[in-house]
């Protein structure tokens, strides 16, 4: 694996395109009824992995850029002089990114701490709140807490999971469906998934589409739980489950608009997705798996999005004067050989491709060691 500016740029472009495609699928009910939740889940995983691992892989084919990337690389290596030192434009962007990342991470930790203070002060669910048949469904390691305001039930905690139930009067059937739904979140480690997505948001805080991706993942998580709840049930159980969702939606709709309770992004809050899920289920969602054709597309997709990388064509010697000083004795300066292509690595960074390296007459280039990785 090799990390470069080019690999990061192409990963962001490809992931952004896939996020837009997934938004189209989630916005058109006919699309995700055809593709199914298993397809959407794997599609989201592929996007997340590409963003977490923006590397060149062994199957990557390099395409040379003669105009755009050379200009971008040249701009990134321009020196900005200050009274005390000089710094490249690329390093300025790195500092800005690092500051944003640290602020985002600190905010996430702060939100966790503040929410933890609220949670530890919540009272356990009263003994008479749940029907006896529903209370038996709760595993010993799962705590039930009571929130005296009208919000959608939610789950939090990874090692010590908790289900928070609101101040809503529900029938035993509705209680059973809600508890089973929240337990499904716990078994699927959905809170942990939300932490992973929040870390991704901290990394790509400057990318607008990452916030859309976060909401997409939240919707897919809820759709997956709905799928788990109804896939083996009868039509009667299906109807009861939909009715339970509608009851919760109706009751929390009367929540005062000035409520000061805010959900951190790492909790499983179902309110934003509730309406879409109800409409989806009411349209008669038939539980089945994605067709073989779309599964083949999913298998090929990771190979396709890692198969191409665009690298800048090497600048000629005149253009490079004053930009780099190639010192053969430095271990960070060498020639990288990838297949039949050669790249100049200066100070550990890819400066571009050398199309005529074998016939080059520059003695400094010939003194540089050739490496395969």
Automatic annotation (TrEMBL):
Domain of life assignment: Bacteria
| Signal sequence annotation | none
Q: Any stretches that span the bilayer, and where are they?
A: 6-25, 37-55, 92-110, 195-213, 292-310
> What's the protein here called?
Peptidase M56 domain-containing protein
UniProt keywords (A-Z) are:
Membrane, Transmembrane, Transmembrane helix
One short Pfam name that applies is Peptidase_M56
Q: Which residues form the Peptidase M56 domain?
A: 11-255
CDD domains in alphabetical order: M56_BlaR1_MecR1_like (cd07341)
């Amino acid at each position: 694996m090799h990390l470069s500016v080019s690999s990061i740029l192409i990963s962001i472009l490809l992931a952004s395109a896939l996020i837009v495609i997934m938004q189209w699928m989630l916005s058109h009910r006919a699309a995700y009824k055809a593709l199914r939740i298993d397809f959407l889940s794997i599609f989201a995983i592929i996007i997340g992995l590409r963003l977490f691992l923006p590397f060149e892989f062994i199957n990557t084919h390099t395409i040379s850029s003669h105009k755009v990337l050379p200009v971008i690389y040249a701009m990134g290596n321009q020196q900005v002089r200050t009274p005390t030192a000089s710094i490249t434009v690329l390093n300025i962007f790195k500092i800005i990114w690092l500051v944003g990342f640290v602020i985002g991470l600190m905010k996430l930790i702060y939100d966790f701490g503040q929410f933890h203070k609220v949670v530890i002060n919540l009272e356990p669910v009263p003994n008479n709140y749940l029907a006896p048949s529903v209370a038996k469904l709760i595993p010993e390691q799962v705590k039930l807490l009571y929130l005296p305001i009208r919000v959608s039930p939610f789950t939090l905690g990874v090692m010590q999971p908790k289900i928070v139930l609101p101040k809503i009067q529900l029938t035993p059937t509705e209680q059973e469906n809600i508890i089973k739904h929240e337990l499904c979140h716990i078994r699927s480690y959905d809170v942990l998934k939300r932490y992973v997505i929040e870390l991704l948001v901290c990394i790509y805080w400057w990318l607008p589409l990452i916030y859309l991706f976060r909401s997409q993942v939240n919707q897919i998580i809820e759709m997956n739980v709905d799928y788990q709840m109804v896939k083996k049930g009868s039509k009667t159980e299906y109807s009861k489950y939909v009715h339970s969702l509608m009851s919760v939606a109706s009751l929390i709709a009367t929540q005062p608009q000035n409520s000061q309770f805010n959900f951190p992004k790492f909790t499983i809050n179902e309110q934003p997705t509730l309406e879409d899920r109800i409409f989806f289920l009411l349209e008669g969602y038939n539980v089945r798996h994605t067709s073989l054709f779309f599964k083949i597309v999913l298998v090929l997709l990771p190979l396709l999005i890692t198969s191409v990388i665009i690298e800048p064509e090497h600048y000629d010697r005149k253009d490079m004067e004053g930009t780099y000083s190639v010192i053969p004795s430095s271990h960070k300066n060498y020639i990288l050989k990838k297949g039949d292509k050669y790249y100049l690595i200066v100070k550990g960074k890819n400066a571009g491709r050398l199309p005529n390296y074998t016939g080059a007459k520059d003695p400094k280039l010939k003194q540089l060691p050739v490496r395969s990785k």
